[in-house]
Specification:
Elements lengths: L1 H6 L12 H14 L3 H24 L1
């Protein structure tokens, strides 16, 4: 699935509002991991969404 996502350039935009402390935390974490802020947020969000989907699929069975 990741291969499909990396073949085409991104076309959608996501904007969020946050408190300065939260933004600083995200910026520091992204820097430590050597990622851009966008890459860090997208990776964390995708991972959480996939885990939630796995949990809800397991509960439905």
């Amino acid at each position: 699935m990741l291969a499909l996502l990396t073949q085409k350039p991104p076309q959608e935009k996501i904007e969020i509002r946050t408190h300065p402390e939260e933004k600083s935390l995200i910026d520091r974490a992204a820097q430590v991991l050597g990622q851009s802020q966008d890459a860090f947020i997208l990776d964390a969000t995708r991972r959480t969404a996939e885990e939630d989907r796995e949990i809800s699929c397991g509960i439905q069975q």
